[in-house]
């Protein structure tokens, strides 16, 4: 059984209809079997994917972004890009979206109101929901008894952000903060671990052979059609899909 089939079976056995696994190998299977130059026109564009992969695996110890870091990235993008480059019409559309979703503005309040904002959507989508429909229900129902756990998740994120600031650059202290956050989130979100284990795309595959610095070889290994779903395959899958769309837009 493929990784995708195992994941779907896992969702069905748990009664989680909104969690649907995407077979990571399908979108990239054809792309990985032919030169990158066939995906994008121009040498500079061809270098984008290998360079991205190199950055992804360049450090010996790397961690995924966690909730407050996702939120900070989105906040910076909004302040440094959207506010400086968006047209009035585009800002109007963004405002309409915020109103339609009943969000509490664009960026989190420093007082920690527990009300979802635009900047926390990537964080909530990443580890606390399985579909856009589920995310919508979360942000619109956070003030109800059934959705009150969303406030608890936001409170954990606020506390984690403060603890990371206190930890500074000390690697051991920051790792302790990250572990503490994951423990606290299990208490705030009853499906936190269950959701992460549905398709294993939160986790990397262990190398079976080859050199540690052979990034291309590991990429081919990770997206193999019989391979279990994994974080590297998901990363490559969606980035290749995005690059294909960019290429088509320039044709």
Topology:
Blueprint: H1 3-14, H2 24-32, H3 43-46, H4 48-57, H5 67-85, H6 88-100, H7 121-127, H8 132-140, H9 149-167, H10 171-188, H11 192-196, H12 215-222, H13 231-249
Could you characterize the architecture of this molecule?
- With 251 residues, this protein is mainly α.
- It folds into 2 domains: 3-63 and 202-249, no CATH class; 67-196, no CATH class.
- It is built from 13 helices and no strands.
Number of helices: 13
| Average pLDDT, all residues | 75
SSE series: HHHHHHHHHHHHH
Gyration radius from CA atoms, angstroms: 20 Å
CA distance, first residue to last residue: 38 Å
Shape: globular
Helix content: 55-70%
Instruction: Identify low-pLDDT runs.
Output: 1-18, 20-62
Total strands: the figure is 0
User: How many separate domains?
Assistant: 2
Strand portion: under 5%
Biggest beta-sheet profile:
none
Sheet/helix structural class: mainly alpha
Entry summary:
With 251 residues, the protein is mostly helical.
Keywords:
2 domains, disordered N terminus, globular, 0% strand, mainly alpha, single chain, 61% helix, 13 helices, 251 residues
